[in-house]
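Entry:
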Amino acid sequence: MSKALFPRFPADPMLAKTYCAAVVGLEATTITIEVNMTRGVMFNLSGMADTAVRESYARINAALPNVGYRLPVSSLTINLSPADIKKEGSSYDLPIAIGMLAAHGKLPTDHLADYMMVGELGLDGKLKPIRAALPISIRARKEKFKGLIVPRDNAREAAVVNNLEVYGLDDITQVVDLLSGKSKPEPVFVDTRKEFYEQQTNFDLDYADVRGQENVKRALEVAAAGGHNIVMIGPPGSGKSMMAKRLPGILPPLSLAESLETTQVHSVAGKLSRDTSLISQRPFRSPHHTISQVGLCGGTSSAQPGEVSLAHNGVLFLDELTEFSKQTLEVLRQPLEDRKITVARAKYTVEYPCSFMFVASMNPCPCGYYGDPTHTCVCTPGQIQRYMSKISGPLLDRIDIHIECAAVSYDDLSKAPVGEPSEKIRERVLRARKIQEQRYHGMKGIHCNAQMTEKMIHQYAEPDESSLTLLRMGMERLKLSARAYNRILKVARTIADLEGSEKVLSQHIAEAIGYRNLDRGDWAERGV
């Protein structure tokens, strides 16, 4: 037998340590990978590793010979410390492979402690992208590592974190050359602020494209100005989805802190593209009505954020609201109230942020044409009642604005002038948000009128006597529910802010009352 095929192993045991990170929720924890080599032919992997991590040994054993590294037959013990944290995914391939090379004496160990490294290893030695590069990069800086080594596809995402050298490399050979001092590639640099501000106002959709529906556009403006949840009710083809998709164009821009937190969520979910460093625009998530509870709230066999968390700091749009299963809709209660969601499974419990603006659209009945002057509704009162009962009272209670969206006729479409552009609407929204920012300065977790507590409603949105009389009359005549009271005052406060009024006046109350369509008594007459 040729000795080149079976190199001799050293007589003394050798130990090498490399460093990577495990991500639970949005937080990364430093993981120390200890590789110990002794005489023998055994292999042991300890440290609460899942199947993907255990399979790394097979990938590494195939990859290293393909790039010119033939390791001697030996007994290997690999420990992932701390052992009480579950290790998932293929991002451990690179640090385990580097640890094996160092333990066999193929790589000096002098600089291993300076770098954190992550990456999946292909059988040809190429580095493949992994999830959650941004939280790992944040952890590497916090732990004061000199640098972070990632696959090239993850480099821009990880380089968002300053005061940390991030190296995006193509294969394990480049990693070995860097750690052994044979080469010194340039760290990846991302001008975070420049890219962030350049992309903030670049919107493809504009309200100027929407003709007619001025009352609905006004309701969406009020919703954007106060951060209110809104539902639009109207027949098919009335433009509900079209207007909802243009909502991000009138919302306030993300702050840099909000952008970083939003990017972390998408990084953990593996939703960032190769060229994306930071999410600079508010997310707009529109899941299909067949989505499951797990898909909406998050959590599978491994911790994953759901749609409510992917919409964090943005908009969650549920088109055809009543087509979603009632059980799926009910999981929205806690996220809408607490603006965070706790995902508890048998093997883990994680918490994800989910502060989003909830927007929904729905038909008024199963056929969609109740109240439409051009189509005849064929639904019975019982069918309408069952249809509308899919939306529970507690969920409806968390939606501030209900607006009816009537179909627009051809004559109205052809004669209507071009709509007001999103830029002008956004200017008014920003002025109103600026007022709220000053009003709630220093109040933790309160940034807009929709987040006001009951105590704050009495402090900042208490109407005068004439407005109270109007509110009382409106609630009695329109048979508004008791739960509508605080919602009306919150929306009225936003309308007053849009007008620059310090007080909530009767005209603000009157407009806010008009935004409670699903609480009105005539819906009960429809069978609701």
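DSSP finds 23 helices and 16 strands in the chain.
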